[in-house]
């Protein structure tokens, strides 16, 4: 069976692009899946080879697609969903760069799909008028595409590297919130996007992701959403007058209290965005006894309180993991179990090796963790040692926020 076919097509600003169709074979559990791609030819050898089997559909899904009052369709929890729980795994129907191409190229990308997939694509939301995007496929791409990585090892030089997006008939039904309860993770090896919960979602609640960097100020978030997706955000962090007359529709000036609340939210979001560079981190603390025993835990609990307030749960894992590690170094078994179990639950999709490591440790932490109670033992051996410095050194871990965002023009 031919799984991968190319037809050389267009050159845009000196760059050649290839229309390339991927047919992922079906298995005992799945039908074959076709992905219609527009690619820099240099990316083709970087695709998984052989292609993976098409993903098995999820039995008894925990979500439904329903119509909303003013946002088009949306995804809603069909039952309670736990933090970290899988919602859906899906192959894109299209993969293409963010740049603009002639309408005929978009149409051709759509036409290369089997009829059922093409109809699914054409039924998706399109926020662009015919004047803006002559091809409806382009309008659908601009409204829906999620960034994905085809060259994780950086084989293509930085100057030539482009941003690619994927379009997903189901995941893309998720509407936007600046305090999302779910997020996505791309996996090149299986050519899938996984959509999963960031915090508990109750039955009937809308399942939403963020389309933009949630660290932006309210003004910038609203401007970006209007420019790229053509809507005014009415999430609780933007429409601070929910239930009353709202600024978005009526352009009334904010009261002093409303203005203060917007400024506090902007400040807290910006602070969370730089927290790991400006606040103490586990790595240095773990070997430095001059720092107080609770400095990381206290600081990280502060960050988690802000994360809860702003609904930025996409940032929580690093803090939760480091708090668990602090309790391990302090030899506090109950607290390590409590935080470690949260790590396992929240990391199963986001970072499965971390989830597995914690699962292993949780069987018998004092026996299995090399540094178990290291700080406690050091203190016992040096009871007189004073803690000299307040800790103001930043962590060096870098959070990759990119997976949170949709791509924009
Ligand atoms: C990726 S689609 C989301 C699914 C879409 N509602 C549908 O019917 O398929 C993006 C479009 O949904 C709408 N949308 C998404 N989030 C919204 C929100 N928070 N408020 C209003 N409209 C929203 C906008 O029209 C936006 O261009």
Account of the protein in words:
- There is one protein chain.
- By secondary structure, this protein is α+β, with helices and mostly antiparallel strands.
- It is built from 13 helices and 13 strands.
- The chain has helices at 103-111, 115-122, 136-144, 218-229, 247-250, 256-278, 282-285, 295-310, 316-329, 333-350, 352-363, 365-368, 374-381, and strands at residues 4-12, 15-24, 33-39, 63-67, 73-77, 86-90, 94-97, 146-148, 164-167, 175-176, 182-187, 192-197, 206-209.
- The protein has a six-stranded mixed beta sheet with strand order 1-2-3-7-9-8, covered by helices on one side. A four-stranded mixed beta sheet has the order 4-5-13-10, with no helix packed on it.
- A hairpin with an 8-residue loop joins strand 2 and strand 3.
- It is globular, with a radius of gyration of 24 Å.
- It starts with a strand and ends in a 28-residue tail after the last helix.
- Bound molecules: S-adenosylmethionine (SAM).
- S-adenosylmethionine (SAM) binds next to strand 5, helix 3 and strand 10.
